[in-house]
Amino acid sequence: MLNRGVLVLNKSWIAINIASVRRALSLLYQGLAKVVHVEDNYKTYDFDSWRDMSEAASSEVVRTVHFQIRVPEVIVLTLYGGLPRREVVLSRKNIFERDHNTCQYCGKKHSREDLTIDHVVPRSRGGKNEWENLVLACYRCNARKQNRFPSEAGLKLIRMPQKPKWVPHIGIQLSQIKRVNWQKFVNTAYWETELKE
């Protein structure tokens, strides 16, 4: 229950993240957030008022020695008004996302365990860790390529690697939207996010 997702809104009520119940309750207790009660016309509650309101709840509660508190679905931060970073971070996860778990040499889709990240221009030949030089490769193609350029190994990229154009504008993938009560906030964030070239 403590690891379940809670939608986090910034102080402008824009969805920015999904936190665990544990983290959400911690923010609530510290006065850094308030619970948004979706069924009660979006009324907000601080920790004490949410705890008092939770006494009558019978399900989806966290019990402590002295009280029980209802698990929130949505919280709004009281101080933070920013938006998540708009730059796509160069990370293993994002390379897998960009390349759709597909070897960029043979074009076959694989499980994550059967793929490696390959430097198109090998590091020993000056290749760097950058979007335009990193691709997914299956073990077979990577072993064939070794420490050479693709053309030297008789391989050809199915598409040239580049920095993704998508932007993690709210830090939430649509597959993570598990609750109907979140949809309004995520839709608002989607439609109101500034479009970049």
What does this structure look like?
The protein is α+β, with helices and mostly antiparallel strands and 197 residues long. The protein folds into two domains: 5-85 and 170-192, no CATH class; 92-153, DNA Binding (I), subunit A (Orthogonal Bundle), CATH 1.10.30. Helices cover 23% and strands 20% of the residues. It has five helices and nine strands; from the N terminus they run ββαββαβββαββαα. The protein has helices spanning 21-29, 47-54, 92-99, 139-145, 180-192, and strands spanning 5-9, 15-20, 33-37, 43-45, 61-63, 68-70, 74-77, 115-119, 134-138. A five-stranded mixed sheet has the order 2-1-7-3-4. A hairpin with a 5-residue loop joins strand 3 and strand 4 (43-45). The longest helix has 13 residues, at 180-192. The protein is elongated. Mean pLDDT is 84; it is low at 173-177 and 190-197.
Sequence of secondary-structure elements: EEHEEHEEEHEEHH
The residue fraction in helices comes out at 10-25%
* Count of distinct structural domains: 2
The largest β sheet comes out as: 5 strands, mixed
Note the overall shape. Answer: elongated
Question: What strand order characterises the main sheet?
Answer: 2-1-7-3-4
Proportion of strand residues:
15-25%
How many E strands? 9
Give average pLDDT, whole number. Answer: 84
Q: From the alpha-carbon coordinates, what is the Rg to the nearest angstrom?
A: 23 Å
- Oligomeric nature of the chains: single chain
